């Protein structure tokens, strides 16, 4: 008998429950051995437990160290902090892993197979910001502090380099802006160069590139890249850019991996404009589930899930509205289940 794998499930807000149900149906059809502990967060957390990240949800992830989550809304007003940011901090989810692969051919760029590794906890996103008042203007000056540590750089670079070796990536590109932010991003570049020379030389090709040049090169010729690794702010921007190369956020999964847990999600939000209408594309969350299967070393199931999604979209031509099709979330899921069970 296969060992059951305890995992936390957070359906989330808006289209979350619809795409989570679709993803669970696909995982069940594959016989994935997850033992789900269903928890709440986001708007649902506020409504039910008066907290967007209730203690029971945190306790569950602390126990399982593994979660699949739908998108979470941060209620505006009420002074709530983003649940996603809190989850990252709470479980030290320092690595954000965003693969971008062409699933539907015929878009602007075909045959894309890229991965962006983003540092998730440091840099300019640490929230050390303030205004300085001058005369009667309270916002006369705005200031932000970024912090990158040697240990933080090493941790994310080691994650990226090990992932590159384990998944057979040929080239790793370190993205920085050390010509201007000499200390803040210089430390990242310098640490990467040292680590490559000391421990990874020859195991993959290594290059460094300045972030603005990288953005242009990605749009002109994305095939020259294989894996990008970079600091928080640049990673945030570039990972959305590469999602755009393969058909947008409806197709983009993401993994947040850290010392204490790993949380898998779709990159898009709760899409309140289409929630409850059966129009949502569940593929991004399903691809996140494929990442989760790989994380627990069920590579064969991940491969079958990706192949099934590809066949449903491209051979059966069953697609949701965002991909130009007419299928509902349920119709897409049923077509996928037929593929997975075939
Ligand atoms: P959004 O990603 O929810 O929606 C942007 C547009 O894309 C909308 O037109 C939506 O209908 C469409 N869309 C998104 N996902 C889709 C899917 N799977 N299938 C078909 N169409 C899809 O971004 P928005 O509107 O800025 O954010 C809505 C809420 O989601 C906000 O409260 C935001 O804070 C939250 N959010 C949560 C995230 C998370 O939990 N990881 C990430 C991004 C936003």
Name the beta content range: 15-25%
* Bound ligands: 1,4-dihydronicotinamide adenine dinucleotide
Individual helix count: 11
CATH class category of the largest domain: Alpha Beta
Structural commentary:
The protein has helices at 16-30, 42-49, 55-64, 83-90, 150-166, 186-200, 211-220, 232-245, 283-295, 299-314, 329-341; strands spanning 5-10, 34-38, 66-69, 95-101, 113-119, 123-134, 137-147, 171-176, 205-210, 227-230, 253-257, 262-266. The strands form two sheets. A ten-stranded mixed sheet has the order 2-1-3-12-11-4-5-10-8-9, sandwiched between helices. It has a two-stranded antiparallel ribbon with strand order 6-7. With 342 residues, it is α/β, with parallel strands linked by helices. It folds into two domains: 1-101 and 251-342, Isopropylmalate Dehydrogenase, CATH 3.40.718; 113-244, 3-Layer(aba) Sandwich (Isopropylmalate Dehydrogenase). 41% of the residues lie in helices and 23% in strands. The protein binds 1,4-dihydronicotinamide adenine dinucleotide. Residues 15, 71-74, 84, 249-250, 265, 268-274, 280-281, 284, 322 line the site of 1,4-dihydronicotinamide adenine dinucleotide. 1,4-dihydronicotinamide adenine dinucleotide (NAI) is lined by residues 15, 71-74, 84, 249-250, 265, 268-274, 280-281, 284, 322.
Task: Outline the secondary-structure elements.
Blueprint: E1 5-10, H1 16-30, E2 34-38, H2 42-49, H3 55-64, E3 66-69, H4 83-90, E4 95-101, E5 113-119, E6 123-134, E7 137-147, H5 150-166, E8 171-176, H6 186-200, E9 205-210, H7 211-220, E10 227-230, H8 232-245, E11 253-257, E12 262-266, H9 283-295, H10 299-314, H11 329-341
Helix pairs in contact: 1-9, 1-11, 5-6, 7-8, 9-10, 10-11
This protein binds 1,4-dihydronicotinamide adenine dinucleotide.
């Amino acid at each position: 008998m296969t060992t059951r794998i305890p995992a936390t499930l957070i359906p989330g807000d808006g289209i979350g429950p619809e795409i989570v149900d679709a993803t669970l149906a696909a995982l069940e059809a594959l016989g994935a051995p997850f033992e789900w502990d269903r928890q709440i967060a986001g708007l649902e957390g506020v409504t039910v437990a008066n907290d967007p990240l209730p203690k029971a949800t945190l306790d569950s992830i602390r126990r399982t160290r593994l979660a699949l989550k739908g998108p979470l809304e941060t209620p505006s007003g009420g002074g709530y902090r983003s649940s996603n940011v809190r989850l990252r901090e709470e479980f030290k989810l320092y690595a954000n892993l965003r693969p971008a692969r062409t699933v539907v051919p015929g878009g602007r760029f075909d045959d894309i197979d890229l991965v962006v590794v983003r540092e998730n906890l440091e840099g300019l996103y640490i929230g050390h910001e303030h205004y300085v008042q001058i005369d009667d203007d309270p916002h006369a000056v705005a200031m932000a502090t970024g912090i990158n540590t040697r240990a933080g750089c090493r941790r994310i670079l080691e994650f990226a380099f090990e992932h590159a070796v384990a998944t057979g990536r040929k080239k790793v590109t370190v993205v920085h802006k050390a010509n201007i932010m000499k200390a803040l991003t210089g430390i990242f570049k310098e640490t990467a160069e040292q680590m490559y020379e000391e421990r990874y030389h020859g195991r993959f090709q290594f290059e460094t590139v300045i972030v603005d040049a990288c953005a242009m090169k990605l749009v002109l010729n994305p095939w020259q890249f294989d894996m990008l690794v970079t600091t928080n702010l640049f990673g945030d921007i570039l990972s959305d850019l590469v999602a755009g190369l393969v058909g947008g956020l409806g197709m983009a999964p993401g993994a947040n991996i850290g010392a204490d847990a790993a949380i898998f999600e779709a990159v898009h939000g709760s899409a309140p404009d289409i929630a409850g209408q059966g129009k949502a594309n569940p593929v991004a969350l399903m691809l996140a589930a494929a990442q989760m299967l790989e994380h627990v070393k069920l590579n064969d199931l991940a491969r079958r899930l990706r192949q099934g999604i590809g066949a449903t979209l491209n051979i059966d031509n069953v697609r949701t509205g965002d991909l130009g099709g007419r299928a509902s979330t349920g119709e897409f899921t049923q077509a996928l289940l037929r593929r997975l069970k075939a």
